[in-house]
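Why should sequence recovery work at all? Because a backbone constrains its sequence more than one might expect. Tight turns favour small or flexible residues, buried strands favour hydrophobic ones, and helices have their own preferences. The token representation captures these environments compactly. In the example below, the structure is given first.
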């Protein structure tokens, strides 16, 4: 049963081919280099890799500006190399999902070139045009402060074209049935090259009505169903993981009430409130976000993340809460971006404090959903704030203390390798951490391994427990006759709680610690007195370790 819906209990790892490993020595990561790191990924225990864009592109937005959907950018290799890679990943039981960037193309895509040059071209209507500058051209920018408008005059077409993102990313007219058919064709093509699905970029914008007349854009959710349907006809176990930073009340529109739309979505709501919890040492708003995002079809899953390749978007927090996170994790203007977020990596935000980094990751791994690790975070990589916008957190992977972190032999890496200082490759690198039993890397490996042994998190039902302490967060999952319980101390001081595991009968008497020998037995009231060190966390299994013998194929209603 568990394997059918593989994404329900998976561990994702996100990377960009460009900055992972350069095998041919031109300074740019490539598929041949990535292939050589597959055993590393396998050892880390991740079960799926999400590749950021690698298709032919002028690379003005890290590949989110595609000029040919049916090819690999020659800097990274060939389609042949790509298939070698998906095959090698498959041999190790690692699935590959790739970005599907179809809200817009590059302005260098032949479709756009033809569309602007020839009003009678079949591609003209693949984009969004307006003779006059629409009155709302100065609104709706996704990159405020950098992007000036959403409509730009094109002197060749002699019309304005719409772009939700940068001006070199003209929006596709996704309501045009020909465009829709082409999107399906793109999905079909990559499925055939061995991928298990897509991280779909900018979903709310893809399905939105567009154009000068669309004053109040509306989401066309039925598009999601037809994409999912097509994908599953072609390959039953492939998925779409949607990037949709939307309010909880529309979540079900994306998942589909019958579970017939997106299999997965990133949980932006939980992400932002998780950072608030870390900044304010207060779990209550996080609990609210968890409850608000709880309803979903049984086959649907949340993707949980701490940091990704974009800024940490805090736009959904109240102004007061946002300020608390900014003050704690990104006080300087150069750390902030687009008037709503923080562009740093996780480790520098948490001042390299192992206790807090572990706490953050332990939370991510135990909240309801499937964890998505950002490459480099497993060794605690830092950022380079001298690089523009979001590039600061996209520097090359630090493999060793060899020149340029072992990323490339070229002295001109595609982006500077972080050098010197507390996060420089000389200190922070995979090879060094491999040799240190207590390193972040080995910690991550252990936590990934344990997470996979706790399918209750991905599959079960959760309950937030009353700790009577706003700084100590506790939750329990129940699934197939078993329960697991997690406790996180968000405070910089040790805390003691008196916890009722909330399980009827005497099953909650024993809490077996999964990460250390510090087990807990209930007192005569059936409650547990737990002393948790500063930023400490506990993973408990309720009852004994014979849980696998107790696991049943059917839900008995009561757990244990
Ligand atoms: C969202 C991606 O995560 C981001 O990196 C990109 O710039 C935009 N979509 C545009 O494709
Ligand atoms: Ca290369």
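From this structural description, the recovered sequence reads:
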């Amino acid at each position: 049963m568990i394997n059918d819906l593989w994404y329900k209990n998976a561990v994702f790892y996100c990377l960009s081919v460009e900055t992972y490993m350069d095998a041919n020595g031109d300074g740019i990561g490539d598929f041949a280099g990535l292939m050589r790191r597959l055993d590393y990924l396998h050892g880390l225990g991740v079960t799926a890799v999400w590749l950021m864009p690698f298709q032919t592109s002028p690379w003005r937005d890290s590949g989110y500006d595609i000029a040919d959907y049916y090819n690999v950018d020659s800097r990274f290799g060939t389609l042949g190399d790509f298939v070698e890679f998906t095959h090698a990943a498959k041999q190790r039981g690692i699935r590959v999902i790739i970005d599907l960037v179809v809200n817009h193309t590059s302005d260098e895509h032949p479709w756009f070139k033809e569309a602007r040059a020839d009003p009678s071209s079949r591609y003209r209507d693949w984009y969004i045009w307006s003779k006059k500058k629409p009155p709302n051209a100065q609104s709706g920018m996704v990159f405020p402060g950098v992007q000036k408008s959403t409509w730009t005059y094109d002197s060749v077409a002699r019309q304005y074209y719409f772009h939700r993102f940068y001006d070199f990313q003209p929006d596709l007219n996704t309501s045009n049935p020909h465009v829709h058919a082409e999107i399906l064709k793109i999905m079909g093509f990559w499925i055939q090259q061995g991928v298990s699905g897509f991280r779909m970029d900018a979903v709310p914008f893809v399905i939105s009505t567009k154009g000068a007349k669309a004053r109040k854009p509306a989401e066309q959710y039925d598009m999601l169903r037809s994409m999912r349907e097509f994908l599953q006809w072609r390959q039953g176990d492939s998925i779409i993981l949607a990037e949709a930073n939307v309010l909880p009340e529309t979540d079900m529109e994306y998942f589909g009430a019958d579970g017939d739309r997106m299999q997965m979505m990133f949980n932006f709501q939980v992400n932002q409130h998780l950072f608030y919890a870390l900044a304010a040492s207060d779990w209550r708003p996080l609990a609210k976000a968890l409850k608000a995002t709880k309803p979903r079809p049984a086959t649907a899953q949340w993707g949980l993340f701490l940091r990704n390749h974009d800024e940490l978007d805090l736009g959904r927090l109240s102004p007061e809460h946002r300020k608390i996170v900014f003050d704690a994790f990104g006080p300087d203007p150069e750390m902030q971006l687009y008037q709503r977020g923080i562009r740093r990596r996780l480790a520098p935000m948490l001042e390299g404090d192992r206790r807090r980094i572990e706490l953050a990751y332990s939370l991510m791994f135990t909240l309801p959903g499937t964890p998505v690790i950002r490459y480099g975070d497993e060794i605690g990589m830092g950022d380079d704030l001298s690089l523009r916008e979001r590039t600061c957190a996209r520097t090359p992977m630090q493999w060793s203390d060899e020149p340029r972190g072992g990323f490339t032999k070229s002295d001109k890496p595609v982006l500077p390798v972080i050098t010197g200082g507390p996060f420089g490759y000389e200190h922070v690198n995979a090879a060094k951490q491999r040799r240190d039993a207590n390193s972040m890397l080995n910690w991550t490996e252990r936590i990934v391994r344990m997470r996979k042994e706790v399918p209750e998190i991905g599959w079960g039902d959760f309950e937030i427990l009353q700790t009577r302490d706003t700084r100590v967060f506790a939750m329990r999952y129940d699934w197939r006759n078993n329960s697991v319980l997690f406790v996180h101390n968000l405070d910089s001081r040790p805390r003691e709680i008196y916890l009722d595991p909330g399980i009827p009968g005497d099953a909650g008497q024993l809490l077996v610690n999964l990460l250390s020998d510090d087990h807990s037995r209930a007192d005569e009231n059936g409650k547990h007195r737990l002393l948790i060190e500063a930023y400490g966390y506990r993973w408990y299994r309720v009852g004994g370790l014979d849980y696998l013998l107790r696991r049943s194929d059917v839900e008995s209603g009561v757990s244990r």
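A few observations help interpret the result. The chain has a mean pLDDT of 96.
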